[in-house]
Request: fold
Amino acid sequence: MEDDSLDITRLFTDLVRVEIRLYNAVDDRLRAEHGIGLGQFEFLGIIDGRPRCRVLDIAREVGITVGAVSKAVDRIESAGLCVRAAHPEDRRSSVLSLTPEGARLLAAARPTFKAELAARTAAVPAADLTRTAATLATLRAALEEHRRDGA
Reply:
């Protein structure tokens, strides 16, 4: 059932603009304080949180192509923040892990990431952010399920 009072186009525009502004603010602060961008930060976090992480795992998590992830991982590896090792069961694939420098950088950047997000969302009451987070999680799950179904 469609709600006639909902302007779905406006909702889309607001979601995109909020994402862009949050992304840019956090990216700017991470670059200024830690010398890495938000994309690198996110990839380091995924690698850190996923045992035997592969490029394909990052691509699926983030929703971008394997080629784009592979190029980004190449840059992270060149910076000395992660290493690739042969996958124990699949010779066509590599397993990613953080270097000690990558782990140190990620640990140092996490509080900055959280602080910038908190500062940028402070004007919104916590209860509203909680409801928004739940709604977005439901929407994300539906979109990801829709994608898995081949659409």
In short: The beta strands are 82-86, 94-98. The longest strand covers residues 82-86. The chain has a mean pLDDT of 92.
